[in-house]
UniProtKB/TrEMBL annotation:
Residues 16-139 form the Activator of Hsp90 ATPase homologue 1/2-like C-terminal domain. Belongs to the AHA1 family. This is SRPBCC domain-containing protein. Gene3D superfamilies: 3.30.530.20. It comes from the Bacteria. It holds the Pfam family AHSA1. InterPro entries: ASHA1/2-like_C, START-like_dom_sf.
Length: 153
């Protein structure tokens, strides 16, 4: 059923899986907002805040160099939807794989499904963050952090 499908997006870059892993593991470099805490070790807990629109506390649950990064959302508040805790209990997964001389990155937000109220807004924001900011960081080693605004919903 299409309503049960988690949000996913992917891209391929002319870089190594290690370069992709390093970029993903440093969300401060590609995800605009305020961070507190570390993201470099398994079990690390960090918080993310974007203005008064989004707050989440995430735990690093998978960290396989050159292959996978996963962050589980322990707490979350979205101020633009009725159920402000929609993100709580979801997981952000980045799968990294070598494809010839290139690297493919597949991002899946497990639990962000079309039936969830924030799906359209959140998937638009993820598309920009993943397809633009993260991709650019992996490709050229830097990015212009995008100012994303979910309050227009």
């Amino acid at each position: 059923m299409a309503d049960d499908k988690n949000y996913t997006t992917s891209f391929t870059v002319d870089q190594t899986p290690e370069a992709a892993f390093a970029a993903i593991s440093d969300p401060r470099a590609w995800w605009s907002g305020e961070f507190d805490g570390d993201t470099s070790k398994l079990g690390d807990v960090f918080t993310y805040r974007y203005k008064d629109i989004h707050y989440s506390k995430q735990q690093v649950t998978e960290l396989v160099p050159g292959k996978r990064v996963a962050w589980h959302v322990v707490e979350g508040t979205l101020n633009f939807v009725e159920d402000k805790t929609e993100w709580a209990g979801t997981t952000l997964v980045f799968d990294i794989m070598r494809k010839g001389h290139k690297t493919k990155v597949v991002f899946t937000h497990v639990g962000l499904k079309p039936r969830v109220e924030c799906y359209n807004i959140c998937s638009d924001v993820w598309s920009s963050l993943i397809q633009e900011s993260l991709r650019q960081l992996i490709e050229i080693g830097k990015t212009d952090l995008l100012e994303l605004d979910a309050s227009s919903a």
